[in-house]
Amino acid sequence: MSRASFTTNFTSSENSRQPDAEVDAEQTRRTVLLGALAVTACLGCSAHARAGEDPPGSDERPQKGDVLVYSQGDKEGKLITAADLNAGGPPVHAWPKDPNTSVVRSGSRLNEILIIRLDPAELDEKTRARAVEGIIAYSAICSHAGCPVTAWVKSDVGDKEVFKCMCHNSEFDPRAGAQVVFGPAPRRLAALPLALADGSLSIAGNFMGKVGGTQPG
Amino acid sequence: MTRKQWLLSGFVAFTCLASTAAVSGPIENYSPVTAQRLENPEPKNWMLYRRTYDGHGYSPLDQINTSNVKNLTPVWTFATGVVEGHQAPPIVNNGAMFVTTPMGQVIALNAKTGDEYWRYKRQLPDDLFQLHPTNRGVGLWEDKLYLATTDDHVVALDAKTGKVVWDTKVQDYRKGQYLTLMPLIVDGKVIVGGSGGEFGVRGYVVAYDAKDGKELWRTYTIPGEGEPGHDTWQGDDWKNGGGSAWMTGNYDKETKTIYWGVGNAAPWPGDSHPGDNLYTSSVLALDPDTGKIKAYHQYHQNDSWDWDEVEAPMLIDLQRNGRTIKSLVHPGRDAIFWVLERTPTKINYVAGWPFVHTDVWKGIDETGKPIVDPAHKPVMGKRVEFCPSLWGGKDWPSAAYSQRTGLVYVPANENFCGGFTGEKVPLKPGELWLGTKPEDIGLKTRPGADHFGELQAWDPATGKKVWQHNFPKSQLFGSVTATAGDLVFVGGTNDRNFRAFHAKTGELLWEQKTNSGIVGMPVSYEIDGTQYIAIQSGWGVDAQRIQDALVTNNIGIEANVPQGGVVWVFALKK
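Above: the input entities. Below: the structure tokens describing the complete assembly.
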């Protein structure tokens, strides 16, 4: 760019009047106090049900026997089968779904799952032992600051593709139990055991490891 | 009592003793903060974000000066025990220091000895999505402190004990609403602005009663139906138009006007939200009693580059063409050094010039509107490259102004470019909504670049650059502070150094390696006749992101900067 002239032109800006219609109704002291109490009561909750929005069970952690449905994209809500997973990735983003009540457990973002199929020969011993036909699942929530792990990209520090959280660049290797290979994340992603029967995927147990970010101190 | 019960009670007693031994609180003889003290702060204290309401980032203390700064040495340190970006200035009120950390902690320390009085730990929800896990400090009023949290609450603490006095929910963090700024306190009002533009929220500035947390007014930065400026948006774009206001405003005590910086439009590609998009990438002049918008200036229209302009402009009296201009000075993220004039009813454009390389602007018209080169304006469905990068010529870290030299000191980044492909992304509350895939965002260095970070010294009255210090192997991502000792202090580089420069010449006079990189703001204070310089060292957030991006550019840049926060306090060696 050529340097813009240093003008002395005093061009006025338009004035504005006060916005009004969109201003929230003033809170009373009572509602403030009640709100604070409600917040205090909820501190420590690991998942927050959105009252009036989500059906019972939607904020519960994945349960044994839950099936898996797409959490995003054109197939959102549809069942994920082993045949849907291409060897070598990319991962599929999923929610657990209670097969008895049909409730999708999307009431907590901590329930989002990454499912990927890899060559079993690439997996380390522990990961291979947990995989079913090379299919493995992990929490989609980064262990650093709780951002979602969204990317499947070539690592900044290696030649393999890895899970990556784009918020702060943490990278996880799904072949090695989602251990951290780059970035500030302090620990691996929680793993979720899967079962496979007649091509249908289901959840075989609880998350292994802590789900969500770290709160220090 | 059985032997087992006795042992257990003994253990409990021991742990309680150990716990109380770790802190010496409460604070005795705390000095209540008044409007008069904030409007005319004692030279020895640092009670506002930039010490004074005009946002200069200037200390009138001069015991430490250009001739003796070489003798500056650490006198105490304090490890916060927290990782990520420590961006808060240590706030000092008559010997009591308050620092905030990422994850919403507040630590009260003896500013002379480093002893801890008390600590407040916010219990953040497990499902919180912390895109910017940081905090920029506490505001002070009477005998309370005010903290804005990433789970979108404003909390009042008893300054002497750290106990919660009130806790007000601002909005719902699960919808991408969060707070990172230091509250601005004006005459008993706690004023904050919301973050979350990257989640497709509608920005706002809101004021609470310092006594009880009652909401007094809320002004949206995106005008709703029937409000002036609404016609700069099409359809329903305004409902999720961005305009975060996530940095502390400045205040003109003479006209009782606060000046607040407003962030970029959402999502990023401009053709996804046609129009000028008021009041994104603007400065708003607000009445602190009512929140009424008195005036505004939009730095650039229809933002498409993520160039929010959230740092509030500095209020400087400039001598120009034989008269005093009550100016607003803002080195912008859009790479333009802006000089505006504030009047009770208007903000006038005075001048603007690029302070780093940019290929986006062809010039500035006589009304102050930058003229865009469409080849470098991101749109949907196409990859567009532009300079500077989306972190801009200068991001949120604050510039400083020295009343002695008349110069503005700018933490700038040169030779960075960026780009992304605009892509339609469905809006889901609480999820990123950038208008591109996050993994598609690039940072490139210009071919042949021999440096990146620049500390620049500008005369805002003439537009003349007086000096510049280059950093060959690092970005410069840290706030600047000037002192009456003709010193300019800044961290911001990946070599973990904290530095002092000669304010008139730019000569590097002193540097000290610290535990981590410094993103936070230096402050200065005095106790018992000794001047201190204080800073938090703790690398993270955007400084770390730029670092990671630079590593992939193979330019031999330091790849690993250790994280972890430490408060460093310096004084002259005796």
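Note for the figure: The CA atoms of residues 318 and 325 of chain B lie 5 Å apart.
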